[in-house]
Specification:
The chain is α/β, with parallel strands linked by helices and about 625 residues long. About 30% of the residues lie in helices and about 20% in strands. It has 17 helices and 24 strands. The strands form five sheets. An eight-stranded mixed beta sheet has the order 4-6-2-7-8-1-9-10, sandwiched between helices. Strands 13-14-12-15-16-11-17 form a seven-stranded mixed beta sheet, sandwiched between helices. Strand 22 and strand 23 form a beta hairpin.
């Protein structure tokens, strides 16, 4: 094949949910590997759950691309050691099945800490790449592992000001390291697109005029070539989608209406909540409402212990993933863990009010695939949006998760619409909420202006925090001499090394059970703990399955009550060295000041806040 010249070095693909962006990115990867001699790929996903699903998709792609060849593919995120799919590929490299010549495997050498990005192929969270541009001890090794590869970033619209500052620096370095980059998004604000193109062109040292990005209709593809040629073109969408909207205020009345609608033919329904607490309460309500029916109610969120979360993730993908034929009678109550990158299909959806881009992302999981038998009640797609009665002064718990400024603009943009037509309205909706201009009613303008000013100050602070821990741009000072502070090499160990800036600290803890003076792995007391930490590798793996990440609104009291985090005795244990330890009695642990953690088999970890005498709950619970 004749070698192709001046192929894109940087590509941004914006298209609706379910349009096939991932397949297009893998096709581009294949062309670049053939024509440019690229030898390696890293697929950077927003979460561990999306990384797990994408890992299987990339494995299938590599198996079909090079049958009988040999490819390395590793999974890189904090819970990768719990993945059965990753274990399967690691086992292949040691002892393949008799008569099998596997194309894809995971060689053991690359499984060691810090080596994963050196493998020819890997899928993981975007954090693994971002750590390459932070002032961490082994950042150069991460950049070396990415050099010359094709790097695919999915769902980049979810990056906040802090992550976007880090990401722009990463793009400069990837350009300087001769990488080719694909960015995928369904809901990318125009200003963010311009900043990404500008950052990559700076890394290429190829100044560009961003004016060509203006006025191009959605969906579109933006390309920056080796020659410095920047272009932006639209293309026809393969799918048009129209969805009715209904606004709701009362959760119980919605649940009762849903029970009537599903009474005859069932259906697969997603009820998406913005906080774990809201999801747990909604689950309890639906279990009560559907108590005498044949409708299943499932719950999925991020505050399950790692092993249980992985099991539920698999159950969700099996029940709602590709190949679903319909005929279900099930309601999935979930948090944001299902809104991005997961290939799921639902007949109907209920969502709490969220920023417009996330509402569109959630909507992309409704009537996603053809070939499903839709029940009569949901034969046409429609969406219920739950909003608090107190709008616009009170957004409830959602106002603690998302910026009230963005929620208010979203509500004002959508509240008078009877339906959404996609992809035709995608740009208008995004720019109405995130653009600088906006024609809003007079009574809301002063409130919006005040919230926008607070939002701008917060973004300035986030960018400053991110910039303070970044390595210099390529071509600048010697990065090994420019570190301004001693940042640890692992995210989560030191606050200065964070790839994401959260309003709350997230602390990984292992939950064990105690009866008298003996600790057990299970609540029933059938598996006693002989030593802390365990020496046996398999036992340590079972411990890791009991890990859960807790977000706490007051880190000081949490650290005081849990003693020291990480647990000092676990320093030499790679799996557990960043974890704390909580010992539960009767499935609970009292942390003081009326705070309590409870582990429920169905609902996961429940956090109780209130007075010592059981007063009203208070504080944020996400």
């Amino acid at each position: 094949m004749e070698r192709m010249v001046d192929l894109p070095r940087f590509l941004i693909l914006e298209a609706p949910m379910g349009e096939g962006k991932t397949e297009a990115a893998l096709f581009a990867l294949d062309r670049w590997q053939i024509s440019l001699g690229r030898n390696g790929v890293y697929v950077a996903m927003p979460t561990t759950a999306t990384s797990n699903q994408m890992y299987c998709r990339v494995e299938r792609f590599q198996e079909n691309r090079r049958p009988g060849g040999r490819e390395n593919l590793h999974l890189l995120h904090g819970q990768a050691l719990l993945s059965d799919d990753y274990d399967r590929l690691k086992a292949r490299s040691v002892a393949p099945d008799e008569g099998e010549t596997p194309s894809v495997q995971a060689d053991e050498w690359f499984c060691a800490p810090k080596r994963g990005l050196l493998a020819s192929g890997a899928v993981g969270t975007v954090d693994q790449a971002l750590l390459g541009v932070l002032q961490t001890r082994y950042q150069y090794l991460r950049l070396f592992g990415l050099a010359g590869k094709t790097v695919i970033f999915d769902e980049v619209h979810g990056y906040d000001a802090y992550m976007l500052t880090e990401y722009e620096n990463l793009l400069r370095w990837l350009a300087a390291l001769n990488c080719t980059v694909v960015v995928l998004s369904a809901t990318l604000p125009a200003a963010t697109r311009r900043r990404m193109v500008q950052a990559f062109s700076e890394g290429m040292e190829a100044p560009v005029s961003l004016d060509v990005l203006d006025g191009v209709s959605y969906p579109r593809v933006t390309t920056l070539r080796d020659s410095g040629d920047l272009s932006c073109d639209t293309f026809p969408s393969a799918r048009s989608f129209s969805c009715r909207i209904r606004w709701e205020h009362d959760r119980r009345s919605v649940a009762q209406s849903l029970a009537e609608e599903m009474k005859e033919e069932g259906g697969a329904v997603a009820w998406i909540c913005n906080t774990v607490r809201s999801a747990q309460e909604t689950y309890d309500l639906l279990k009560e409402v559907f108590r005498d029916s044949k409708i299943d109610v499932m719950l999925f969120h991020a505050r399950y212990q790692a092993g249980e979360r992985r099991r539920r993730e698999k159950a969700v993908l099996e029940r709602f993933g590709p190949g679903r034929k319909g005929g279900d009678g099930v309601v999935l109550v979930a948090t944001q863990v299902v809104e991005q990158s997961l290939d799921l299909d639902f007949d109907h959806m209920i969502t709490e009010l969220a920023p417009v881009d996330l509402i569109l992302q959630r909507l992309g999981r409704e009537h996603r695939h053809g070939g499903c038998a839709r029940p009569k009640a949901f034969v046409e797609p429609w969406l219920r949006i739950l909003v608090p009665e107190g709008l616009p002064d009170d957004f409830g718990a959602s106002g603690k998760v998302y910026l009230p400024f963005v929620l208010l603009r979203t509500w004002l943009v959508l509240k008078d619409r009877a339906s959404l037509a996609l992809p035709g309205q995608m740009d208008d909706l995004m720019e109405a909420v995130y653009g600088e201009a906006g024609d809003f009613p007079e009574e809301y303008r002063s409130l919006l202006a005040r919230w926008q000013e607070e939002h701008s100050k917060g973004e300035d602070g986030s960018r400053f925090k991110a910039a303070s821990i970044l390595i210099p741009d390529p071509g600048g000072r010697d990065v090994t001499q420019a570190f301004s502070q001693g940042v640890q090499e692992d995210e989560g160990v030191c606050p200065r090394a964070r790839t994401r800036l959260s309003k709350e600290d997230r602390i990984p803890v292992v939950l064990l059970h105690r009866k008298g003076e003996v600790s057990y792995q299970d609540r029933s007391g059938t598996a006693p703990v002989s030593e802390i930490p365990p020496r046996d590798p398999e036992e340590r793996r079972r411990w890791e399955k009991r890990m859960v990440e807790l977000s706490v609104d007051l880190p000081t009291w949490f650290l005081r009550d849990v003693d020291r985090i990480p647990e000092p005795r676990w320093k030499g244990c790679a799996l557990l060295r960043h974890h704390g330890l909580l010992l539960l009695e009767d499935g609970k642990v009292v942390l003081g000041e009326g705070r309590c953690l409870e582990v429920d088999e169905e609902k996961g970890v429940i956090r109780h806040f209130g007075s010592e005498k059981g007063g009203a709950s208070r504080g944020r619970d996400v």
